[in-house]
Design goal:
Immunoglobulin-like, 28 strands, alpha+beta, seven-stranded mixed sheet, Neutral Protease, domain 2, 31% helix, globular
Length: 582
């Protein structure tokens, strides 16, 4: 398969694509555009971005075709051995998994926009990219040649097969900022696209440290070179997508990139996505080996491929010393808070929620229905790590389990199952783990007690305090405040707010006759000892909700902290977990 990519007017956001299929021997062939992209386990329906579509033979004569599904086409070849599909793709969304075109860059995630023929998935792929003469290319594409003709640079590249091609995003721009370093013979490239002022000494120092920590865990790296492709946006944003030889990260706002909070976010997502190089790009669930691009790839093991990665992404920063106690406890606290605030944990298991990412995995969905494979998977990994260490007297940990998955499955291109994961843990510990898997992974049994005891194993504890927003603690609802609108997001089951008839998506417009404009908390504090008359808009109609604060605490605020009276044994457990003194 051969691809040619060009464009004429970047302001329209339309990319022109030609896809040529050679050595055809069938009277009819099926062409497919991927329905989803690995790393985002939901249908993407990329074909909606195609505006024009036609098929020609080597002489330029039109061939007939028929669309057979939302993203597949049947081509009548009429005995032709070579056909070319000419189409365009609307590239007007900029995130870590999208395709984008403007006057500053051409950014392609091939999985979004390049057609394939099922019979030729394993054949070599060639790609020609035509961009302005002063553009550079960032990414893991294997460039074969580069030529400049007048104002156009033609970059020719190739990939071993379609799987490799669509797992290799790239950015073409004349504004790319680049630096690199080598660690244990592996070349690491860091690219920035967008307005930013990177502190290269700090970036390379920190990236070197956390990457080395991941090397220490897995002992080897799957590739010879790797690329961090970082899209810096002028507004608040946070998103990352893993690939076999690279990651794309979209983050903003640009002016905060090197400041503490956003820089920590950059480190966190970079560590997370790099960890995916082992965990999901190589250690892959059986249901996704190989990927099936035209349909859902259902799997119940999201708590492994996303959960373990979430746990280890931050843990690697903590072990390496880049994250302080406060930095790491902040991220761990966030996972505890999300878990304990979400009453969907009583209704849907993490295994079920993993299966259903294809249904509604990346939106809130109906209230209290499901859980997050990232949050629940992270906490399950944390508990498993603590339990393995406790059962083996700290002679083994979840590290050993991951290393076994990589050596036995990842390196041998074998897909794992949930049973394989459990079997490895049982082999490492010599214990039966049926209760853990049946109750907490496949089931919905609360695991608060196990979370607390796992923290205690490392000399940590969960502190519970009253929310700084009293309407969360003593009325039982949470809101979002954006653009001077206060919208109810969550309501605690059994709370005063629920009993009084407050509903999710209600817009709060007043408290005791005073207008609410992003200041609900201030008015609630002002009238705290009185009965509240909350004015809301529900489905276009105004209502009054009467609420009087109770002494019952509904939503609580949690903090992971070190214990003041940790024992020597707990301190030793912590030392073996993190690698430094308690």
């Amino acid at each position: 398969m051969k691809y040619k990519i060009s464009y004429s007017n970047p302001y329209t956001h339309y990319i022109d694509i030609e896809c040529s299929i050679e050595n055809i021997s069938l009277p009819q062939i099926e062409l497919q555009l991927p329905s989803w992209r690995p790393g985002r386990y939901e249908l993407g329906n990329f074909a909606k971005n195609i505006q024009q579509f036609k098929v020609i033979n080597a002489k330029g004569e039109a061939l007939s075709y028929k669309k057979t599904s939302k993203d597949s086409w049947s081509i009548n070849t009429k005995g032709e051995s070579v056909i070319t599909v000419i189409y365009n793709y609307y590239a007007a969304e900029l995130n870590a998994g999208s395709t984008w075109l403007d006057d500053k860059q051409l950014y392609i995630n091939p999985i979004n926009c390049l057609l394939y023929c099922e019979q030729k998935l394993e054949d070599p792929c060639h790609i020609e990219i035509n961009v302005p003469f002063d553009y550079k290319l960032a990414g893991a594409l294997k460039v074969v040649s580069t030529a400049i003709n007048k104002e156009i640079k033609t970059i020719k590249a190739m990939a071993h097969d379609y799987h490799t091609l669509v797992d290799t995003p790239f950015i073409c721009s004349n504004a790319l900022q680049h630096n690199m370093f080598v660690l244990d013979g592996v070349e690491f490239n860091i690219w920035f696209q967008g307005e930013c002022k990177p502190d290269w000494a700090k970036l390379i120092g920190d990236f070197f440290i956390f990457i080395n920590e991941q090397f220490l865990l897995f002992k080897s790296f799957p590739t010879e070179r790797y690329h961090f492709l970082i899209q810096v946006l002028p507004f608040q944003f946070y998103h990352g997508v893993e690939h076999a030889y690279s990651t794309v990260i979209a983050i903003g706002p640009a002016y905060n990139l090197m400041r503490k909070d956003l820089y920590d976010e950059l480190l966190g997502v970079s560590s997370h996505e790099l960890f995916h190089t082992w965990n999901v790009k190589n250690i892959r669930p059986k249901e996704m080996l190989p990927y099936k691009y035209n349909t859902e790839n259902y799997a119940t093991t999201g708590y492994i491929y996303e959960g373990l990665t979430t746990y280890y992404g931050d843990l690697m920063l903590y072990r390496s010393g880049i994250f302080s106690d406060a930095d790491y406890f902040k991220t761990l606290t966030q996972q505890f808070q999300k878990h304990l605030d979400n009453h969907g944990r009583f209704n849907y298991s993490v295994a079920q929620s993993s299966f259903d990412t294809w249904l509604d995995g990346y939106v809130p969905g109906v209230p209290n229905r499901k859980v997050s494979i990232y949050t629940e998977g992270c906490l399950l990994a944390f508990m498993a790590d603590a339990q393995i260490r406790a059962q083996t007297n700290n002679n083994a940990s979840l590290d050993n389990v991951l290393l076994a998955l990589y050596n036995d499955f990842g390196k041998n291109n074998i897909g794992y199952t949930a049973n394989d994961y459990q079997t490895i843990i049982e082999h490492v510990t010599g214990q039966n783990w049926n209760n853990f898997f049946n109750n907490y992974i496949e089931g919905t049994l609360p695991y608060n007690d196990l979370l607390i005891s796992s923290l205690a194993y490392f000399g940590l504890e969960l502190s519970i305090v009253t929310s700084k927003r009293p309407y969360e603690s003593f009325l039982g609802f949470k809101v979002s405040e954006q653009n001077n609108e206060t919208i109810v997001q969550n309501i605690h089951p059994g709370s005063l707010a629920e009993a009084a008839g407050l509903a999710i998506k209600d817009k709060i417009i007043g408290v005791n006759g005073f207008e609410v404009r992003n200041n609900l908390n201030e008015w609630c504090n002002y009238f705290w000892k009185e009965t509240f008359v909350i004015n809301v808009i529900t489905d276009g109609k105004t209502r009054e909700i009467n609420l009087k604060p109770s002494k019952i605490m509904y939503y609580k605020t949690y903090l992971v902290i070190k214990s003041n009276d940790a024992t020597a044994e707990q301190a030793d457990n912590y030392n073996k977990w993190i690698g430094r003194k308690y």
